[in-house]
Amino acid sequence: MAGPVHGLAYVTVIAAASLARTPSGVRLRALIPGVGGQLALRHLRATQNG
Hints:
Layout: H1 4-19, H2 24-30, H3 36-48
């Protein structure tokens, strides 16, 4: 992804993580450009599974 599509995806990941009731670690990981969404999902799954 590049250009406006990448920017929109980045903002969407941040917005989704901010609006959802998630631990702060998930929200912080979502702020990392490029791989933040994947890291946030991994952390969210790990916290839900115990």
